[in-house]
Amino acid sequence: MTEVPDTVVCPGCDAVYGRTPLRPRDVARCPRCGTELDRHPGQQERRILPLTVACLIMFAIANLFPIVEIELQGMRSQTTLAGAVVALSAEGMSVVALLVLATTILFPFLQLCILAYLLVPLSREHRPLGFALLVRAMQSLRPWGMIEVFLLGVLVAIVKLSSMATVVPGPALWAFVALTVMLTAVLSFDPGAFWGMAFRPRGENVGDEPGEGKGGASA
Question: What's the Rg (C-alpha) of the chain?
């Protein structure tokens, strides 16, 4: 199979075009069907690694500190996310506990670890081992990270419990809020950009404007 690296195939109509260098904020669209073919990443590549590190810090806080503290008739109770998983398992809801463990701890943590593993060497113009496999694995894990769903469930539970007991949000809850916002930004990063970073000529800066090229696609 012959590889043609300077071409792009339209996902809408399968038309093949020559890849045109893009300037910041330029977007290339298919002249035939209008489907987006490519866009200049701007400064996103420089922001994604610090955001990933910040997500890992928030993830650690969200899992190490209590989510909420409930006070009812002089008795206080608080739990972490891991404690909630253990409590669900002890109550005979092992399947639910496994789903919570996978979607709120395991899969998001794996995604962030893969991102960090890929981005640190790529920022130094080195392609990490297992690059292609890890990019595909990260794509497969994306739909299974459901921290925002868990956060919504916690907020609903707090509202319902507030009429029966005193509920004090813990540090982990605020960390989950920050993590949800930052994960949205991190996971919006186009995985296709990893290939551009991995095969970019050495010495080419992320923010460089590529000559006089116009946004668009040429046949």
Answer: 22
- Evaluate whether 69 touches 78 at the Cβ level (below 8 Å): yes
CA pair distance 171, 187, nearest whole angstrom: 24
The closest alpha carbon to 35, from 18, 10, 14, belongs to: 10
Give pTM, 2 decimals: 0.70
Please give, one letter per residue, the 3-state secondary structure of 78-128.
Answer: EECHHHHHHHHHHCCCHHHHHHHHHHHHHHHHHHHHHHHHHHHHHHCCCCC
With contact defined as beta carbons under 8 Å apart, do 43 and 25 qualify? Answer: no
Q: What tokens were used for 7?
A: 């071409």
Q: How far apart are alpha carbons 153 and 52 in whole angstroms? A: 25
At 211, list the tokens: 């000559």
DSSP structural state of residue 206: T
The secondary structure of residue 27, as a DSSP letter, is: E
Q: CB-based contacts of 153: which residues, under 8 Å, 6+ apart?
A: none
- For the stretch 61-91, pLDDT in tens is 988 888 888 877 767 777 788 888 888 888 8
Decide: 44 and 62 in contact? Cβ < 8 Å. Answer: no
- Between helix 171-187 and helix 147-161 the angle, nearest 10°, is 150
DSSP string across 6-20: TEEE-TTT--EEEPP
CA–chain centroid gap for 99, Å, is 19
pLDDT above 90 covers a percentage of the chain that reads 6
